[in-house]
C-alpha cells in the first residue's frame, strides 16, 4: 500500500508543499493504474483538487474514501474544508463532519494522525498540524514519522527560537529511519542557517537511498546554486530531466543557468517558450508558478526584449487565472515598464488602483513611470516635478517596509538627478537605497527567491543614474575616482558576481573600469562579455575606444569592423563615427576624418538632443552630451589640422550655441582657447582659460592648457610651473601633485620633482606608479645610494613586485650584482599582487633579469635555466594576452621572440650547439616571421653548418623584406657564393655594395678576406683607394674602420709591423676594438706566420729564430699586455687567447697550464675549434704528437665556417706538418689542397707542397708551389725566397734563381748561404 511506501508519500508531500497540485493528481492516477485502487492515492488526489479550487469534485472523491482505513481522519478534515469553501455551504453537513473529526481524533491510529497532519497542513490552519504531530509523538513514540512531522511544523510555522529546535527533531526522526521527506526537511533547515555543506551531505543520503527520487535531486540542485557551483547544479538538473523530461522546476533552473551564468539570451527565449508549454500542460492552474517564473527571468535578463515578451506571457497567464490579485496586476504593469513602455505601464497600474485605491506598490510604480518619462524626454517641467515630488513624499510617509523604502529612496535620487541637484546629493541617496536593499538580501540564501529580491534590473537603474554623473573620459593615474564611479563599480561587481551572464552588467562594469582608469581590467571584462555574445555591438565599440586610448589604431579599426559586421545599424550610431574619425586622424587621413565627422554631425540626436525625436516616436540612438560635444570638437581640430580655419571657427560657433548653459560649456571654452592658439592669438586663449575658476568642471584641464602655452609659446618655465603650483594649491590631490612633479621633470628639475612626488606619495603610500616615478627621479639626479634606499623603503610598505623588479634592473645597470641577486630572490619569494596575467608578466621580467645577472656573473647554466623558465612563462602569457589584453599581444610576441634569440645565442656561445640555436631562432620566427635580424642569424648558422641552400633562402627572404636592401644579407650572399666556389659572383656582390658606399668598412673588411681566400689580394688596393677618396685623405687617417681594413690588408701581405701600427690606431674605437686587438695579439704570437708546433721547418728556422729571440720575447710580452685589455662577449675567446700566449712561449710548464685551460674550455663548449687547436699546439710543445694528431683529426672532420676559418687553416697545416714528419705525403697533400680550396693565398700551404715535391725530387713542381708561396708572401719572406731559388737551381732555371737571390739579398743582405749555395752556383752554371 502507498501508506507504507516512504518514497511515494515523500513525493506527494513535497509536491503539495511546492504547490505542484496537478503533479500530485498525475502521480495518484499513475499509482492507481499500476497498483489498483488505494485510499491514500484517492485522498491526495482529493486534497490536490481542493487546493486547485475544484471543490465539488473534491467533495465527491472524499465521500468515497472518508471511511477508509488510515485516511479517514484526514479525509474528514479535508471534507470539512471543502464544504466550507463550496458555493452554498451546508451548515448541518459541516457540523456533522466536525463532530466526526472530534470522535476520530480520540481513537486515531498513527497513520490516521499522519494523514490528519497532511490534510490540516496543506488545506487547514497553522495550529492543527502541530496538534497532530504532538499527539502522534505522545501516543506512538516509536514511530519516527511523528518526530519528522513535528520538526516540519517547528521549522515552517514557529518563530526563530522554536525553529532552531527543529534540527534535533529531524535528527531524532531520521535515526535508523531513511524517510526521504525527513531528509528534505533537514536539508532545508540547514540551508536556512547557511550550513550548505552539511545540507548537501544530508540530501546526498536521500539520493543514495532513493536514486530516482526527483524532489531530492531538485533540492540538491538548489543547494549547489546556493554554493554558486553552477556545473554541479546542472548535473543534478540533467539527472532530473533524464527521469522526467517535463519537470517545470528543472526547466526553470536550466533557463536560470542559461541566462544568469552563460548569458545565452537567444537560446533562453526558446527554452522559456518550452517552459510555458510545460506549465500549460502539466500545471495549468498554478498561477503562482506562472508569476514567479515571469518575475525571476525578467529581473536577470538585462531587459532583453525577446525574454521580456516571454515573461510578460507568463505573468499574463497568472493574471488570467487570478484576475483580481493586485500583486499579479502590479507585476504585469512592471513587465510593461521593463519594456520601456511607460505610458502603457501607468494604465496597467491604474487597473490595480481600481481594485485597491491604497495599493502602495501601484502608486509607486506610477511615480516611477512618470519620472522615467521626464528623464527620457529631458522635460523637467517644474509643475510636473512638484506633483511627482508630492507623491513621493506621501508614499514615504505611509510606507514602512524596507523593500518599499529602498525603492522610494531610489526614486528620490532619480527625481533629484532630473532636477539637476549636486552629484553628492544624488550619490548619497543612491547609497542609502543600496544599503537598505543589501540589508534585505542578507537574510536570504542564494536561490530563485534571492534573484527576485536582488532585482538586478533595479540595481542597473541605479547605475544608469550614477553614470550620468560620471566623467566621460578616463581619470588619470593618481587622480581620485569620482564617487559616482566608485558606487557604480560596487553595484556592478555585486551583480556580476551573482549573475555573471548578465551582459549589460558586464558591459557597464567594463565601462566603469575604463572611466576609473583600470584600462586592462576593462579590456578583460569586455573580452569575457564578447566570449558570451560576439554580436554585442556596444561591447565592440567600447573595446575600440579602449584600443584607441592605448594608441592601437589597427585593433581599433578591427573592433569597429566587428561591431559593424554583427549589427549593421551601428553605422547610424554617432559614437561609431567618432571613434572611426579619431583613428583616421591618428593615421594622418585628415580629409576622410572630416567627412566621417560631418556624417556623424548629420545624424539625428547630435546637433540637438534626441528627446525631441523620441517624442515623434523616431528610433534614434541616445547619445550623451559629452559624446555630442566630442564630435563638434574633433571636427574643429580636424579643420584646423587641414588649415581650414574658417570652417573650424564656424563649427566652434555651432558648438558654443548648442551647449550654452550646459555642463559642457567649459569644455567648449577650453577648445575655443585651443583654436585661438592655432590662429596665433595667444593672449585671447589665456584670457579664456583664466576665466575658468577652481569650482568649475574641467578646471584641471584648463590649467594644463595654460601651462603648455607658457612653456611652448611663451618659453617661460617659471609661469609653466606656476600653473601647476596654483592647481595644487586650489585643488589639492595626489593627481595635481603628480602633475606638478611631472612638470618639474619636464624642465629638468628632478630635485624639485622629488619633493612634490614625495608629498603625493605620503597621501597615497600604496601607489606603485608614484613610487616608481620617485625612484626614476632620484636616478636622474645620480644619487644612486638614495635611490636604492628609497626603493628598499617603498618595498617595505607593501609595494608589488613591479617596483622590486625595477630596483633589480637598476642594480644590474650599476653592476651591483650581489644586491640585485638578493632583490630578485625576494621577488621570487614574495606573493605578487594584481591579476594572474600581471603576475605572469612580472615573473617573465624577473626571470629575464635573473638570466642577465647569471650571464654577467658567469653562471651560464643558471642563465640557461632562467631563460628556459622565462620562455615557458611567456608561452602561458601569450595564450592569455590574446584574450585579456590583445592590444599588447604584439609587444609580448616580440618579448617571446627576444627570449628565443637569447636562448639561441646561449646555445651557440656556451654549448656550441648550432642545431639547437637554429631551433630557437625558428621558434622566434613563429612570433615574428618578418624579423630580418632573426632571418640573418638563421642564414649565418646555416652557412656555418654548410647548408648553403637554406642560408641563401633566408638571405633572399631578408633582402625581400628590406626595401632599400640589406647590407648584412648581401654580404652573406657573397659568402654563400664563395662557399659554392662562385668566386666572381661573390666578389661582385661586395663590389656593387662598395660602389654605392665605399666607406662601408665592414663590407670592405669582409671583401679583403674574400679576395685573400680567392687569391686576389692584389685587387684590394683599388677599394682602399676608393674608401680613402670617399672619406678624404685627412679623415681616412683618423677613421678606425679604414685603419682596420688597411691593417688587415698589410697583415695578409706579410707586413706584420705595418699591420700592428694600423690595428693599434683602430683599437681605440669601440666598434673595431675587439677585432683589432685580437688581430694584434695573433700577430704578436706569430709575426712570421709560422706553423706553431710544426716540426718540418723547425730546423731550417733555428738560425733565424736564434737571431730574433729577443724580438719574439718583446712580441710575447706585448701580446700578454694586449690580452689583459681584450674584452669580448664570448668569454671563451678571452680564455683561449690567454692560453695561446702561454703556449707561444714554448716552455713546458706554460704549455701544461695552457693545456689545462684548453681542456676546461672544450668541456664547457663542445667542438670549439680554437680550444681544440690550442690543445693540439700544447701537445706538440709537450712532444705528445699522437694526442695532438687526434685533436687535429677531430677538427679536420668538422664543418668549415667563415668565423673560424683561420683556426681551421692552422689545424689543417699543423696536421699536414705531422703527416709530413711521419712521411705520409699523400695524406698531407690532401689536407693542403683542402686548405687551398678555402684560401688560395695560403703561402704556408704552398710552402708545404713545395717541400713535399722537393723531397720527392720533383723540383719543377716544387718550384711552382714555392713560386706561389713567394708571390702570396708579397715576396718578403727570405726563407721561401731561398727555397724557391734553390728549386729553380735544381730545375735548371738559373736566371730565375739569380733574380730571386738578388731580391732576397736586397732585403736581407746577410741571409746565410744564399750567396754561396745559390747565387754563385747559378752564375757558374750559366758560364759553363
From TrEMBL:
UniProt entry keywords in alphabetical sequence: Repeat, TPR repeat
Tetratricopeptide repeat protein 21A/21B fourth ARM domain span: 770-925
TPR repeat boundaries on the chain: 326-359, 734-767, 967-1000, 1209-1242, 1243-1276
Domain Tetratricopeptide repeat protein 21A/21B fifth ARM repeats intervals: 968-1085
SMART domains for this protein: TPR
All copies of domain Tetratricopeptide repeat protein 21A/21B C-terminal ARM, residue ranges: 1118-1323
Gene Ontology terms: biological process: intraciliary retrograde transport; protein localization to cilium
Gene3D superfamilies with a match to the protein in the record: Tetratricopeptide repeat domain
Top-level taxon of the source organism: Eukaryota
Domain Tetratricopeptide repeat protein 21A/21B second ARM: 271-551
Tetratricopeptide repeat protein 21A/21B N-terminal ARM repeat domain sequence ranges: 13-234
This protein's record includes keyword Repeat: yes
PROSITE patterns: TPR
Signal peptide range in chain numbering: none
Keyword Membrane in record: no
GO cellular component assignments: cilium; intraciliary transport particle A
Family: Belongs to the TTC21 family.
Matching PANTHER family: STI2 PROTEIN-RELATED, TETRATRICOPEPTIDE REPEAT PROTEIN 21 HOMOLOG
UniProt name for this protein: Tetratricopeptide repeat protein 21B
Gene that produces this protein: Ttc21b
Amino acid at each position: 500500500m502507498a501508506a507504507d511506501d516512504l518514497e511515494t508519500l515523500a513525493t506527494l508531500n513535497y509536491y503539495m508543499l511546492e504547490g505542484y497540485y496537478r503533479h500530485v493528481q498525475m502521480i495518484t492516477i499513475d499509482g492507481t493504474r499500476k497498483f489498483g485502487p488505494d485510499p491514500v492515492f484517492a485522498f491526495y488526489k482529493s486534497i490536490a483538487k481542493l487546493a486547485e479550487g475544484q471543490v465539488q469534485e473534491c467533495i465527491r472523491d472524499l465521500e468515497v474514501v472518508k471511511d477508509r482505513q488510515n485516511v479517514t481522519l484526514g479525509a474528514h478534515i479535508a471534507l470539512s474544508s471543502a464544504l466550507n469553501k463550496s458555493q452554498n455551504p451546508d451548515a448541518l453537513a459541516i457540523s456533522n463532519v466536525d463532530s466526526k473529526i472530534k470522535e476520530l481524533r480520540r481513537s486515531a491510529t498513527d497513520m490516521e494522525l499522519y494523514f490528519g497532519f497532511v490534510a490540516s497542513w496543506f488545506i487547514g490552519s497553522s495550529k492543527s498540524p502541530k496538534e497532530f504531530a504532538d499527539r502522534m509523538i505522545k501516543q506512538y513514540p516509536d514511530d519516527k514519522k511523528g518526530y519528522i512531522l513535528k520538526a516540519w511544523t517547528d521549522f515552517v510555522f514557529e518563530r526563530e527560537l522554536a525553529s532552531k529546535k527543529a534540527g534535533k527533531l529531524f535528527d531524532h526522526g531520521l535515526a535508523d529511519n531513511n524517510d526521504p521527506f525527513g531528509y528534505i526537511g533537514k536539508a532545508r533547515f540547514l540551508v536556512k542557517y547557511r550550513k550548505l555543506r552539511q545540507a548537501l551531505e544530508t540530501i546526498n543520503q536521500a539520493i543514495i537511498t532513493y536514486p530516482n527520487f526527483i524532489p531530492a535531486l531538485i533540492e540538491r540542485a538548489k543547494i549547489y546554486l546556493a554554493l554558486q557551483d553552477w556545473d554541479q547544479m546542472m548535473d543534478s538538473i540533467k539527472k532530473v530531466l533524464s527521469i522526467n523530461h517535463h519537470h517545470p522546476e528543472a526547466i526553470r533552473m536550466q533557463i536560470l543557468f542559461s541566462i544568469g551564468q552563460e548569458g545565452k539570451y537567444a537560446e533562453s527565449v526558446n527554452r522559456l517558450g518550452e517552459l510555458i508549454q510545460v506549465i500549460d500542460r502539466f500545471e495549468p492552474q498554478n498561477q503562482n508558478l506562472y508569476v514567479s517564473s515571469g518575475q525571476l527571468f525578467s529581473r536577470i535578463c538585462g531587459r532583453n526584449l525577446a525574454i521580456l515578451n516571454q515573461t510578460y506571457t507568463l505573468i499574463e497567464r497568472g493574471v488570467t487565472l487570478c484576475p483580481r490579485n493586485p500583486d499579479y496586476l502590479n507585476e504585469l504593469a512592471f513587465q510593461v515598464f521593463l519594456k520601456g513602455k511607460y505610458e502603457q505601464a501607468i494604465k496597467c497600474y491604474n487597473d490595480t488602483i481600481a481594485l485597491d485605491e491604497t495599493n502602495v506598490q501601484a502608486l509607486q510604480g506610477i511615480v516611477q513611470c512618470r519620472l522615467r518619462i521626464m528623464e527620457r524626454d529631458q522635460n523637467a517641467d517644474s509643475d510636473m516635478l512638484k506633483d511627482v515630488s508630492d507623491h513621493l513624499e506621501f508614499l514615504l510617509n505611509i510606507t514602512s517596509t524596507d523593500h518599499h523604502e529602498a525603492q522610494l529612496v531610489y526614486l528620490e535620487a532619480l527625481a533629484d538627478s532630473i532636477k539637476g541637484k549636486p552629484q553628492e546629493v544624488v550619490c548619497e541617496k543612491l547609497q542609502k537605497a543600496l544599503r537598505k536593499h543589501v540589508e534585505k538580501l542578507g537574510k536570504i540564501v542564494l536561490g530563485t527567491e534571492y534573484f527576485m529580491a536582488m532585482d538586478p534590473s533595479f540595481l542597473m537603474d541605479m547605475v544608469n543614474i550614477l553614470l550620468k554623473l560620471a566623467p566621460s573620459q578616463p581619470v588619470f593615474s593618481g587622480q581620485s575616482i569620482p564617487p559616482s564611479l566608485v558606487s557604480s563599480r560596487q553595484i556592478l561587481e555585486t551583480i556580476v558576481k551573482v549573475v555573471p551572464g548578465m551582459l549589460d552588467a558586464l558591459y557597464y562594469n567594463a565601462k566603469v573600469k575604463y572611466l576609473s582608469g583600470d584600462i586592462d581590467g576593462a579590456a578583460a571584462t569586455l573580452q569575457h562579455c564578447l566570449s558570451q555574445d560576439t554580436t554585442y555591438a556596444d561591447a565592440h565599440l567600447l573595446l575600440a575606444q579602449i584600443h584607441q586610448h592605448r594608441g592601437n589604431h589597427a585593433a581599433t579599426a578591427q573592433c569597429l569592423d566587428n561591431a559593424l559586421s554583427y549589427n549593421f545599424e551601428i553605422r547610424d550610431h554617432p559614437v561609431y563615427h567618432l571613434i572611426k574619425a579619431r583613428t583616421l586622424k591618428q593615421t594622418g587621413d585628415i580629409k576622410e576624418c572630416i567627412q566621417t565627422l560631418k556624417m556623424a554631425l548629420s545624424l539625428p540626436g547630435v546637433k540637438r538632443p534626441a528627446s525631441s525625436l523620441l517624442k515623434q516616436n523616431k528610433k534614434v540612438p541616445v547619445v550623451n552630451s559629452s559624446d555630442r560635444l566630442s564630435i563638434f570638437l574633433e571636427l574643429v581640430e580636424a579643420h584646423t589640422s587641414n588649415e581650414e580655419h574658417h570652417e573650424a571657427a564656424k563649427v566652434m560657433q555651432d558648438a558654443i550655441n548648442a551647449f550654452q548653459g550646459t555642463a559642457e560649456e567649459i569644455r567648449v571654452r577650453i577648445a575655443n582657447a585651443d583654436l585661438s592658439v592655432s590662429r596665433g592669438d595667444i593672449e585671447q586663449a589665456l584670457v579664456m582659460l583664466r576665466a575658468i575658476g577652481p569650482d568649475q568642471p574641467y578646471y584641471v584641464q584648463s590649467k594644463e592648457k595654460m601651462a603648455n602655452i607658457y612653456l611652448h609659446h611663451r618659453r617661460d618655465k617659471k609661469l609653466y610651473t606656476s600653473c601647476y603650483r596654483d592647481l595644487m594649491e586650489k585643488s589639492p590631490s595626489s593627481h595635481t601633485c603628480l602633475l606638478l612633479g611631472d612638470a618639474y621633470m619636464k624642465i629638468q628639475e628632478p630635485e624639485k620633482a622629488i619633493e612634490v612626488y614625495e608629498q603625493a606619495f605620503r597621501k597615497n603610500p600604496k601607489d606603485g606608479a608614484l613610487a616608481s616615478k620617485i625612484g626614476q627621479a632620484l636616478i636622474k639626479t645620480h644619487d644612486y645610494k638614495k635611490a636604492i634606499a628609497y626603493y628598499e623603503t617603498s618595498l617595505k610598505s607593501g609595494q608589488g613586485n613591479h617596483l622590486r623588479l625595477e630596483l633589480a634592473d637598476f642594480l644590474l645597470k650599476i653592476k651591483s650584482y650581489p644586491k640585485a641577486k638578493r632583490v630578485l630572490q625576494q621577488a621570487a619569494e614574495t606573493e605578487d599582487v594584481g591579476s594572474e596575467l600581471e603576475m605572469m608578466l612580472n615573473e617573465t621580467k624577473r626571470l629575464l633579469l635573473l638570466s642577465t645577472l647569471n650571464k654577467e656573473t658567469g653562471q651560464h647554466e643558471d642563465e640557461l635555466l632562467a631563460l628556459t623558465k622565462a620562455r615557458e612563462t611567456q608561452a602561458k602569457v601569450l595564450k592569455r594576452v590574446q584574450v585579456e589584453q590583445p592590444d599588447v599581444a604584439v609587444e609580448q610576441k616580440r618579448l617571446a621572440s627576444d627570449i628565443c634569440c637569447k636562448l639561441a645565442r646561449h646555445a651557440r656561445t656556451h654549448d656550441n650547439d648550432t642545431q639547437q640555436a637554429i631551433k630557437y631562432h625558428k621558434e622566434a620566427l613563429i612570433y615574428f616571421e618578418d624579423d630580418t635580424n632573426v632571418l640573418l642569424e638563421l642564414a649565418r648558422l646555416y652557412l656555418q653548418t654548410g647548408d648553403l641552400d637554406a642560408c641563401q633562402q633566408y638571405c633572399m627572404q631578408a633582402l625581400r623584406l628590406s626595401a632599400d636592401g640589406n647590407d648584412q644579407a648581401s654580404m652573406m650572399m657573397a659568402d654563400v657564393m664563395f662557399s659554392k666556389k662562385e668566386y666572381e659572383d661573390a666578389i661582385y656582390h661586395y663590389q656593387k655594395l662598395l660602389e654605392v658606399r665605399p666607406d662601408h668598412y665592414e663590407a670592405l673588411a669582409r671583401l679583403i678576406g674574400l679576395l685573400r681566400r680567392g687569391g686576389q689580394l692584389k685587387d684590394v688596393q683599388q677599394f682602399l683607394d676608393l674608401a680613402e677618396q670617399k672619406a678624404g685623405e685627412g679623415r681616412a687617417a683618423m677613421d678606425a674602420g679604414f685603419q682596420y681594413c688597411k691593417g688587415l690588408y698589410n697583415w695578409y701581405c706579410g707586413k706584420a709591423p705595418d699591420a700592428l701600427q694600423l690595428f693599434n690606431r683602430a683599437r681605440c674605437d669601440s666598434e673595431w676594438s675587439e677585432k683589432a686587438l685580437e688581430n694584434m695579439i695573433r700577430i704578436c704570437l706569430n709575426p712570421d706566420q709560422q706553423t706553431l708546433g710544426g716540426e718540418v721547418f723547425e730546423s731550417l728556422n733555428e738560425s733565424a729564430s736564434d737571431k730574433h729571440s729577443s724580438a719574439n720575447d718583446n712580441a710575447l710580452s706585448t701580446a700578454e699586455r694586449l690580452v689583459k685589455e681584450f674584452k669580448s662577449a664570448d668569454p671563451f675567446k678571452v680564455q683561449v687567447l690567454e692560453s695561446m700566449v702561454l703556449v707561444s712561449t714554448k716552455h713546458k710548464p706554460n704549455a701544461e697550464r695552457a693545456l689545462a685551460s684548453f681542456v676546461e674550455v672544450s668541456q664547457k663548449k663542445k667542438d670549439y675549434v680554437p680550444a681544440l687547436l690550442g690543445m693540439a699546439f700544447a701537445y706538440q710543445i709537450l712532444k705528445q704528437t699522437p694526442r695532438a694528431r687526434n685533436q687535429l683529426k677531430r677538427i679536420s672532420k668538422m664543418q668549415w665556417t667563415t668565423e673560424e676559418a683561420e683556426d681551421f687553416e692552422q689545424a689543417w697545416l699543423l696536421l699536414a706538418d705531422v703527416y709530413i714528419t711521419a712521411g705520409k705525403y699523400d695524406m698531407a697533400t690532401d689536407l693542403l689542397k683542402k686548405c687551398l680550396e678555402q684560401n688560395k693565398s695560403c703561402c704556408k700551404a704552398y710552402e708545404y707542397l713545395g717541400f713535399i715535391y722537393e723531397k720527392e725530387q720533383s723540383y719543377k713542381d716544387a718550384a711552382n708551389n714555392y713560386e706561389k708561396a713567394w708571390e702570396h708572401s708579397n715576396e718578403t719572406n727570405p726563407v721561401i725566397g731561398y727555397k724557391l731559388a734553390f728549386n729553380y737551381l735544381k730545375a735548371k732555371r738559373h736566371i730565375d734563381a739569380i733574380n730571386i737571390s738578388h731580391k732576397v739579398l736586397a732585403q736581407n743582405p746577410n741571409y746565410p748561404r744564399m750567396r754561396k749555395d745559390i747565387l754563385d752556383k747559378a752564375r757558374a752554371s750559366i758560364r759553363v
